Amino acid sequence: MDRVYEIPDEPNMEQASSVEEDVIRGASPRFTFPFGILFSTFLYCGEAASALYMIRIYQKNNETFWMTYTFSFFMFSSIMVQLTLIFVHRDLAKDKPLSLFMHLILLGPVIRCLEAMIKYLTLWKKEGQEEPYVSLTRKKMLIDGEEVLIEWEVGHSIRTLAMHRNAYKRVSQIQAFLGSVPQLTYQLYVTLISAEVLLSRVVLMVFSLISVTYGATLCNMLAIQIKYDDYKIRLGPLEVLCITIWRTLEITSRLMILVLFSATLKLKAVPFLILNFLIILFEPWVKFWRSGAQMPDNIEKNFSRVGTLVVLISVTILYAGINFSCWSALQLRLSDRDLVDKGQNWGHMGLHYSVRLVENVIMVLVFKFFGVKILLNYCHSFIALQLIIVYLISIVFMLLFFQYLHPLRSLFTHNVVDYLHCVCCHQHHQRRAENSEPPFEADTRQNIV
């Protein structure tokens, strides 16, 4: 959710190139404090500490079954987080024994957070100084059907900090949907059937819920960044608040329905849940095999076909984990090098919510008619109605976001148009000064595509 560096709102017109070059040089981006890295690390440590404490309590109470599942969910997500950070930072090809040791004891996010903070403090102390190593970042714009490039110089240190930011975004996704979702679902199930609410279990569930909501919100933001990567896009507080409410209601209602359904049918619910997950898991592979496409190359440098296959399987598992609890905001395409479909895919979104709504209604009806009364001291009909209404409200917030708050609306009606209008005026005044043309009186906005 945070930005390690920000592109200035206004271009630096003094550095504008000629019209023939079609490149406008902007001011250097400003780096910002990486709040997202700190927040992700806090969630990881909080959930890990509360999970280990619950494991200790289960062990003292001789509840081996509950302890085993709690430990399994914690270990699987923690190991995947460590592997993700090692993969992103390419530690195996570097001489970093301390970092590898921290990953080995499952504290990789902590050492990475410290590295990011040290890098930020170094940049803060050297603010205003020119870096010896820089790279160029370009964004495409359209003026009268012709592409114009806006170009910025980005320092090597800012790039490194951005790499930390991107790594933690991936970690938040994995932690949320491969660890927090099963952990939250299981702890809710244990609370329901044991009719006992422990403070330590409540703390674990709160951390898990925040982690899932944060991961789901990041899904939307990353999807928007991927689809409109050529443009400068920002999400304001109102947009983020709408996404957060939408995702919180969607996830909590979905998981509560799954818990009540599982508590009603117990082992009979397992085949249904496994089948549901397997359909989501194999859907991208079925589309890939039916298309007859080849496996994408160059997903990562120096990757063999086996390494590429491992990456594709890992991405597919994460994709299935996201779609099992909420909408992923992206459609996986295994034949593409980017692994995602950058189209809007309204049909995919509509199909997802339609199927999930039918599934939720069926599971709620099963709970209402077959649920054991000893599970809850409340009216089953009232609980079932509440859960369906909450899920429908989440869909309303989703529609509200796409109708009024999606950045696509402001992208072509405000941000880009105003920006290009400023660029066109500057270029026209340059030509007028060079060729001594008469004053410019026409409305430039009418000529902008």
TrEMBL record:
Keywords: Membrane, Transmembrane, Transmembrane helix. Belongs to the XK family. The chain crosses the membrane at residues 31-54, 66-88, 100-118, 174-192, 198-219, 306-330, 350-370, 382-405. One of its GO terms (cellular component) is plasma membrane. It comes from the Eukaryota. It is a multi-pass membrane protein. It is found in: Membrane. PANTHER family: MEMBRANE TRANSPORT PROTEIN XK FAMILY MEMBER (PTHR14297), XK-RELATED PROTEIN 2 (PTHR14297:SF4). Pfam families: XK-related. This is XK-related protein. InterPro entries: XK-rel (IPR018629), XK-related_adapter (IPR051773). The keyword Membrane applies. It comes from Cavia porcellus (Guinea pig).
